[in-house]
Amino acid sequence: MHCQFENSTFNNHKTMKDFAIPTREEVSENNQAIFDNLKKGLGFVPNLYAYYAKNETALGDYLALQNRKSTLKAKEREVVNLVTSEVNGCRYCQSAHTVLGKMNGFTDEQVLEIRKGGASFETKLDALAKLTKAIVEGRGKVSDQVKEEFFAAGYTEANLIDVVIVVGDKVISNYIHNLTGFEIDFPLAPEL
After folding, report:
1. What is the dihedral of CA 191, 187, 172, 56, to 10 degrees?
2. Per-residue confidence of the chain (192 residues) as pLDDT tens digits?
3. DSSP state letters, 36-54
4. Could you tell me where the beta strands, DSSP code E, fall in 51-181?
């Protein structure tokens, strides 16, 4: 049996559903309150967060996961976010975390190097970037050498658990944007 996809909706973008970002008025009261808090804290509601609000509980659940207490410093979480977003090809998260990475003290050049899965400028962050890349590419299956380098750099098993939780957090966002392709409301990160 021969399947032809040329005229199907798989290859016809015009029949693709447009994934619109809801306005504050289009979301529940609970999500409106979260929008208000985000606007106070960030100055705006990022499109990714607004999109989550199409679901009654997803925005609050996601923010609770993202803002949980962690053994990783903010700068280390940004390494995990940048590497994961690069491996998963998420332009939205690459762009957002380029801004956040620079807010956490990384230079433009360092952000690009981190996105490639390394950090030659700091041994500990290099081990973290390499582990993160291996986790995402290998879906959790990582060589003993990469794990040994991570622990030799001073990380603990508690840190390992937090790396996986941050990867999971970022995979959720990467997949949401990769599925929907809504507008990126951050300065576009350069392509590698």
Report:
1. -160
2. 444 434 333 444 445 678 999 999 999 999 999 999 999 999 999 999 999 999 999 999 999 999 999 999 999 999 999 999 999 999 999 999 999 999 999 999 999 999 999 999 999 999 999 999 999 999 999 999 999 999 999 999 999 999 999 999 999 999 999 999 999 999 999 999
3. HHHHHHHSS--HHHHHHTT
4. none
What is the CA angle 43-48-49, rounded to 5?
Answer: 60
Extract the tokens encoding 164. 């996986």
Distance in angstroms (rounded) separating the CA atoms of residues 82 and 85? 5
∠ CA 145-143-83, rounded to 5°: 95
Closest CA to 146 of 135, 157, 159: 135
Query: Which of left, alpha, beta for 139 (phi over 0: left; psi -120 to 50: alpha)?
Result: left
Task: Name the burial class of residue 59, with classes exposed (0-12), middle (13-18) and buried (19+) by CB atoms within 10 angstroms of its CB.
Answer: buried
- The residue length of the chain stands at 192
CA distance 79 to 27: 32
Whether the CB-CB separation of 130 and 146 falls below 8 Å is answered with: yes
pTM score: 0.90
The answer to whether 182 touches 19, Cβ cutoff 8 Å, is: yes
CA distance 115 to 94: 8
